[in-house]
Design brief:
Layout lengths: L2 H11 L12 E5 L2 E4 L4 E4 L2 H4 L8 H11 L13 H10 L10 E5 L2 H16 L3 E5 L8 H6 L17 E4 L25 H12 L6 E6 L15 H12 L2 E5 L23 E4 L10 E5 L1 H4 L15 H16 L2 H21 L7 E7 L2 E6 L5 H11 L2 E2 L1 E3 L4 E4 L7 H19 L16
Parallel strand pairs: 3-13, 5-6, 5-7, 7-8, 8-9
Antiparallel strand pairs: 1-2, 2-3, 4-10, 9-10, 11-12, 12-15, 14-15
Length: about 450
């Protein structure tokens, strides 16, 4: 079947509910590049939405998976321990942001891990209610749909959803009505902290602390726009949790495993989560997720209350061990910070340049989790995205605001980063000059 025929076959037979950037067929991936079935090669600044953090088909991860598949593929965890599962625990323990995070449960996807965290929080506290952030993304399973507040499309027409979920504003300073009207008095470095006030009011008006099990937060807002919180925010949330007997759950699915320049994003603010959720980069593309908490909480659950047919798959865990080893041996975090600074410098130039400033509203992020938010009302982000694709580069839009997110591999070379920066800069300049590419308004979704 030709590449075109195979693509049309996919359009006909794959569920329409899956949105996608393009209808081309990926044949292979290597490092920072993917190659389509038709032969076209793209520089990949999506990393499978933050999954292949060490690049496509990282040699040592691939070797570990290949080796394990010849020994044991499915070692069902409810039957017995299996070696890769325990080796992964051993590999992750020294990487945890706090020593209290010492007991693990592995599952398959990020959404499943979020639901595992909900189960743990509700069971450990004997309380029901959950607080999430406006703009947050936690998944598309039935439980996590109720928690996801980044876009209505994820839960539209699926009601009634899981009850007991409340939301408060995340400190998104670029869109804060107080900051944008304060004549510079309030900004990211000097936050008005209205989201903290709103959290305190929520606990007085809508969900009493005695009914509230946990606050779930992405330390860097993901699908909501790649928004880091201002410096004091997470510490204030931690104080509120401690004062009211509420668990703090850090959803590190997208911002974890080195994406922000530290192994886990909470390390930027020195805040201890009671439960931490991991997925995406944990096994560099093999399906695996996890929650970690302190043993006293995890041991409250009765044997048999947690599990899953494929939970902690042996091949995925072996890949996870190789990922952890690569972080220690290949100076990954050092590269993240160096390449992230180069990308951020280019974005800030575009923000200040008289030729392109009319396009750029905000640039932000940490490490290699960076975003360019465009001036509203023009569809600039999808136009820049289309220009990048025309230049053989993949990028994604995100958020209800007109935003592009940049998620290159964490080990991207200096040369490939320079190439990517040049493509992005040219795309911004061309859109600013009035060029109107054919593929617009997609918001990262292929049109029918």
């Amino acid at each position: 079947m030709s590449a075109s025929a195979l693509s049309q076959f996919g359009v006909k037979h794959v569920a329409r509910g899956i949105g996608r950037l393009a209808t081309e067929v990926i044949e292979s991936g290597s490092g920072s590049y993917v190659t389509m079935l038709g032969g076209r090669r793209f520089l990949d600044f999506t990393s499978g939405i933050g999954v292949t953090n060490l690049g496509h088909c990282h040699p040592s991860v691939t070797k570990a998976a290949q080796s394990q598949i010849g020994k044991l593929v499915h070692g069902q965890i409810n039957i017995a321990f299996q070696k890769p599962y325990l080796e992964l625990v051993e590999s992750l323990l020294p990487l945890m942001p706090h020593e209290s995070l010492d007991t693990f449960f592995f599952w398959n996807s990020g959404a499943e891990a979020v639901e595992a965290a909900v189960k743990l929080a509700r069971h450990a506290t004997k309380k029901q209610n959950i607080i999430v952030m406006q703009g947050s993304y936690h998944g598309r399973t039935f439980g996590t749909m109720a928690m996801t507040r980044s876009k209505t499309v994820y839960g539209e027409n699926y009601n009634p959803l899981m009850p007991g979920v409340f939301s408060v504003p995340f400190p998104y300073c670029a869109q804060c009505s107080i900051a944008t009207r304060s004549d510079g008095k309030y900004n990211y470095d000097q936050c008005c902290m209205d989201p903290i006030l709103q959290l305190e009011l929520l606990l007085k008006r809508e969900t009493a602390p005695s009914d509230t099990a946990a606050i779930f937060i992405e330390p860097v807002l993901g699908e909501g726009g790649y928004v880091p919180p201002p410096p004091e925010y997470l510490a204030r949330v931690r104080e509120i949790c401690d004062k009211n007997g509420i668990l703090l759950v850090a959803d590190e699915v997208q911002c974890g495993f080195g994406r922000t320049g530290k192994m886990f994003a909470v390390e930027h603010w020195g805040v201890r989560p009671d439960i931490m959720i991991m997925a995406k980069g944990i096994a560099n593309g093999l399906p695996l997720s996890a929650i970690v908490s302190r043993k006293e909480l995890m041991d409250m659950q009765k044997p048999g209350s947690m599990g899953g047919t494929y939970a902690g798959n042996a091949v995925s865990c072996a890949a996870g061990v190789a990922v952890a080893k690569a972080f220690q041996e290949e100076r990954i975090l050092e590269n993240v910070n160096a390449r992230g600074a180069e990308l951020m410098d280019m974005l800030r130039r575009a923000q200040k340049d008289s030729k392109t400033a009319k396009v750029v509203y905000d640039v932000r992020g940490l490490g290699l989790m960076l975003a360019l938010e465009c001036q509203p009302g023009h569809g600039y982000a999808s136009k820049i995205q289309a220009k990048c694709m025309a230049k053989d580069m993949l990028v994604l839009t995100t958020s209800i605001y007109d935003t592009i997110r940049f998620i290159p591999p964490l080990n991207i070379s200096k040369e490939d980063m320079a190439k990517g920066c040049q493509i992005i800069e040219e795309a911004i300049e061309e859109v600013a000059a009035g060029q109107d590419p054919k593929e617009t308004g997609t918001k990262g979704q292929a049109l029918e």
